[in-house]
Write a structure and sequence with these properties.
Blueprint (H helix, E strand, L loop, with lengths): L7 E11 L2 E7 L11 E4 L2 E9 L4 E6 L1 H6 L10 E6 L18 E10 L4 E7 L14 E4 L2 E9 L2 E6 L1 H6 L10 E6 L1 H16 L2
Antiparallel strand pairs: 1-2, 1-6, 2-5, 3-4, 3-6, 4-5, 7-8, 7-12, 8-11, 9-10, 9-12, 10-11
């Protein structure tokens, strides 16, 4: 489990394809502290560390075909900047919101507005009968693993406000109209939605 508070960004240094799997080698400042089997969120997607080179501060994670299809990992290139967060410690403050690292779907940045001291980012995502994920004003959303508060909200569209610190420390400073990002909707909202669907089905 994660909090959505990004520790730093990692850099993709190598991408290898093996059958339907992709092996990503990344470099990160705390690479020397990592261990095999450790879970880490990469742009909000939970991946397992399978190899570590402590001297080079590099590690390898593997993504299978299902992950590549449902996330933005297929857009990663060598040199890409990736938001990373190690799994939550149980002896510290819970500063973000519950982020499982299970990406629900991708969204596309449609507009970036400079608010003279902060930035407003607008996103669109597929909303359909099959994908009923929704946002609500002042609700929580995870974008590339970053815990954020929803500002504007409509079916298939939402916006978030980004302060300078978040803009600089995460890969938000690379977002442009057309950038594809990973989104994870609030887990409590998903449970409430599912319970309401079951209630409505039972009442038919």
């Amino acid at each position: 489990m994660f909090t959505g508070i990004i520790e730093t960004t990692a850099r993709v240094v190598k991408i290898e394809k093996e059958d339907t799997n992709y092996h990503f080698t990344l470099e990160v400042p705390f690479g020397g502290e990592l261990a095999i089997d450790q879970s880490m969120a990469h742009d909000g997607c939970c991946l397992t560390v399978v190899r570590v080179d402590k001297a080079a501060r590099q590690y390898v994670v593997t993504a299978m075909d299902e992950t590549m299809l449902k996330t933005n990992l297929s857009t990663w290139k060598v040199g890409a900047e990736v938001n990373v967060e190690r799994s939550m410690r149980m002896d510290g403050r819970f500063d973000g919101h519950i982020v499982q690292g299970h990406v629900d779907q991708t969204a596309r940045c449609t507009r970036v507005v400079d608010d003279h001291g902060s930035w407003r980012f607008y996103f669109e995502y597929e909303y359909s009968a099959a994908k009923k994920n929704i946002t609500v004003p002042k609700g929580s959303i995870s974008i590339n693993g970053v815990s954020l508060t929803v500002v504007d909200s409509e079916p298939g569209m939402f916006s978030v406000a980004i302060i300078p610190y978040t803009y600089q420390v995460t890969n938000f400073h690379n977002f442009r109209p057309g950038t594809v990002v990973n989104i994870e909707f609030d887990v409590f909202g998903k449970y409430v939605q599912r319970l309401l669907e079951q209630y409505m089905e039972a009442g038919k």
